[in-house]
Amino acid sequence: MEFLVHMEVGWPPDGDPVERDRLVAAEAARADELAEAGLVTRLWRVPGRWANYGLWEAPDADALHVAISSLPLFPWIDVDVIPLATHPSDPGARKRTA
Amino acid sequence: MEFLVHMEVGWPPDGDPVERDRLVAAEAARADELAEAGLVTRLWRVPGRWANYGLWEAPDADALHVAISSLPLFPWIDVDVIPLATHPSDPGARKRTA
Amino acid sequence: MEFLVHMEVGWPPDGDPVERDRLVAAEAARADELAEAGLVTRLWRVPGRWANYGLWEAPDADALHVAISSLPLFPWIDVDVIPLATHPSDPGARKRTA
Amino acid sequence: MEFLVHMEVGWPPDGDPVERDRLVAAEAARADELAEAGLVTRLWRVPGRWANYGLWEAPDADALHVAISSLPLFPWIDVDVIPLATHPSDPGARKRTA
Amino acid sequence: MEFLVHMEVGWPPDGDPVERDRLVAAEAARADELAEAGLVTRLWRVPGRWANYGLWEAPDADALHVAISSLPLFPWIDVDVIPLATHPSDPGARKRTA
Amino acid sequence: MEFLVHMEVGWPPDGDPVERDRLVAAEAARADELAEAGLVTRLWRVPGRWANYGLWEAPDADALHVAISSLPLFPWIDVDVIPLATHPSDPGARKRTA
Amino acid sequence: MEFLVHMEVGWPPDGDPVERDRLVAAEAARADELAEAGLVTRLWRVPGRWANYGLWEAPDADALHVAISSLPLFPWIDVDVIPLATHPSDPGARKRTA
Amino acid sequence: MEFLVHMEVGWPPDGDPVERDRLVAAEAARADELAEAGLVTRLWRVPGRWANYGLWEAPDADALHVAISSLPLFPWIDVDVIPLATHPSDPGARKRTA
Amino acid sequence: MEFLVHMEVGWPPDGDPVERDRLVAAEAARADELAEAGLVTRLWRVPGRWANYGLWEAPDADALHVAISSLPLFPWIDVDVIPLATHPSDPGARKRTA
Amino acid sequence: MEFLVHMEVGWPPDGDPVERDRLVAAEAARADELAEAGLVTRLWRVPGRWANYGLWEAPDADALHVAISSLPLFPWIDVDVIPLATHPSDPGARKRTA
Questions:
Q1: CATH of segment(s) G2-56+66-79
Q2: For residues C89 and D75, what is the distance between their CA atoms, to the nearest angstrom?
Q3: What value of ipTM does the predicted structure carry?
Q4: Which residues of I lie closer than 8 Å to G, measured between beta carbons?
Q5: Do at least 3 CB pairs under 8 Å connect F with D?
Q6: Mean of the pLDDT values across residues F30-42?
């Protein structure tokens, strides 16, 4: 099942820059692992913000929560999850079955 | 450039069912054309609502507006457009360059 | 997977009372069928409103959408779906495994 | 009487992790006691957030407040309470009288 | 148990004035009955609006819903219910026990 | 003139507990004085929150502001004031004139 | 006591223009009477909208409601009332006592 | 003085298409006149909506209201006006003085 | 041109009381100067809050911004500016021309 | 492609004034560079706030994000981006082609 996930990072502007760099690097590494595992399939940056929209794929909300909460920046991230159903006109679905 | 587009159809519950069926069929046909043209790349239904999230690809907001307003149900649809920037960890971008 | 679903019926105050009674009866019958099928497990009325919260169980958002949109009053209902994950302290889960 | 209760924990991301672990353990223990006492009957995690929806049962709002405010994390929790009325189509009610 | 109830009447400006007068009179009569029965204990008009705040007293949300939905204008009223707990400094409680 | 007043206390979760206890005791004492003076006539706790709804009576907004701002916790309280008009069906008004 | 009152007129765009003109003229005449009686002391148009902010003066919310609801367009107007207290730095108050 | 003005047209989807075409043409003609008169200096379409952002220039809010309300579609348009002050880094201001 | 200005002071509850007193005194002195200069013509306190509504008069948004940002508490104040147009039924305008 | 960008600076009122001055100067210098490069074409101050609306021009959301995030105050700025399409009645477009 697919989920549209919006994330906004609430890192304090005066936070420790070294810790920030360490967390950002760890976040990117973890994101790669989640992508490898097929949990994150697309990721977009919201222009002008430290925020992203992501397309996630997980068997259910439990697996999704485990994946999201494994992100190193998780305690600083405000997350909104929108469950998605398939649409009969989805071009992506058509390609998969082609 | 990619856009995340949310659409909610405001068709009146007591609207003419024949006209509704005609418009829904025309909408699906037009969506297929937009998919063929590469303007719509993914489409998801919001469960429980006559609404969808779509991933659109267009050179700019002008081309996007022309595409969206070509939908037969356009006068009944409330549309929100979110511009998307590429994310360094996007698994989809990685696949394209692979 | 469980979903918390909020429904608010937007039936017009001056709508045809006969049609309303017919739809309400059909809605109750369909709700019973969905309960029998295990799709709706709990249902509460929001006091003072023609609205309810329901606990739904479905394999994914597709099955949920099919179930919700099968309700006779669906065109008049505004639906919000909240995906739920299991909580380690859930007393209900404990009872099931007991 | 049943209440739908939404809780969101506002623990600071840079809060003391030892104190956090202590409070989370105490919270789980207290949740178990409230479940044993029949005050909490179901509990779900909101995926992607340190938040939950709970189904609470209490004679009135006074008893509910005493129960909620007994949680060790209470000073950090934002709580919304929605009173629930019974619904004639509630499958849960049917099972109880069966 | 007490509830704070907010009501806003959505009668259409061009609605039939005769029917409106009939409903308003019936509403006042029903409100008197609910007051007699102890279900409504205070009622205030929101200045500038066809709206009111009321203090209701009912054993639970079921009895409250039955009372509210018995109002003749109910199909036109938007109702919000806030459950109330007793406050240790409530002057009204002090008077009752005096 | 009556006012419906909503108060939400924004005391920090990690605030000094001794100072908190001192302020809460002073708040209760001041609330009693305001009740004695007829400025606060009813007070309810919002279940699950450090918040209350109160029924205040004051000649005008000036007297109301003086009373509210005399509360020891005032700097931490977020206050919303709703002016109330008398309602022709108010059971409380009927009792007073009886 | 002074009140800040916001009014927004919800006249339908396709409403009868003759009836509209009649109501607008009656509204202006009634506004003049309320100004003469000292109930409305200032009135501003919100640019771009059929809406206004007004400064009203009335002994209490009852007198204010009687005045507002006497406006011929009242059934079409959405009204928000904000109670005002005197400010120690108010230049207007200084002029009055001068 | 410059104003940022947001306009959203609320024309009903089932409105008379002939009248709509007539109004749209008249709107474009009036927009040209306002541009000629220097009242509208820029105009952008909001993609996916019958809405626009405009940069208006007028001596004050009175002149702005006269201009906006002269639009043939005015009764159907929801308008929000944001007053603008000059910014020391405005590239447009620099060009004007160049 | 007149502006309706809403101000809410966000001074921290545990802020230095000496600095607070100094700023409040300086604020009152500056408010008097702005009143003398005709920039602030009325000022009201919002009951129960450290907030006010003010009627400001300035040639344009630039002059208004200079005046508002000259307030000593400006860095702590959240300000909303509503531009006002003259209303044909404004009693204040009538008095000025009388 | 043009974008309407709203920025609100969340600099803490008690922040270091020296650092603030340094950042504000650096921000102005960077804004000049972005203007020179044609990325920012207009900039307005929101009166009464540390906020601005800007008209930005960039090939896509990626270039826009790079430009915005290059601002020295970026970590303290809350940014909202609205994509803009050309409007057939835009006076600015007419001038360009003239």
A1: 3.30.70.1060
A2: 20
A3: 0.94
A4: 2, 4, 28, 31-32, 35, 40-47, 52-53, 55, 82-92, 94
A5: yes
A6: 98
